[in-house]
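Friendly challenge for the regulars: who can give me the structure tokens for this chain first? No prize, just bragging rights.
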Amino acid sequence: MIDRAEAFIFYSYNTIFFQDIGRITGRLVLITKDQKMKIVFTTSGTDINAPLDSRFGRSPRFLVYDMDNATFEVVDNQHLSASHGAGIQAAQTVVGTGAEVVITGHCGPKAFRVLQAGGIEIFHTDVPTIAEALAAYREGRLNSASAANSKGHQI
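First reply, four minutes later:
Bragging rights claimed.
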């Protein structure tokens, strides 16, 4: 009898994912000539001087900053009030923006895994504003997170 391994390949937002029986085993990020470096910040505000929200999944908005053009757009977190899975759904929204980096205060384990699977690097910080977080990132004062720093379910 020969064991048959089941594997799936799926494509999402310039990334090819390899999935083997329920878990992602690898990914290949496709970079195109026109792809821009985008950073997502969690916030309750609508501009670069707005406060950095410490909660990823329950953050009211995401400010998507384009490093190449020094422009931004604000995306509402449609899953802010979800009773369960707010972090996972928020992470899916962020992956959909095409961002490569997330800067936030706290990120739960499920959202962290979704972001990582989407090829997004996560940075935790306690600076008060997006402008300060952006400056810290540019100056190399933020460290990439290797794990979630919240147990999740923060309201």
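The chain has a mean pLDDT of 81. The first helix runs from residue 86 to 96. Your move, everyone else.
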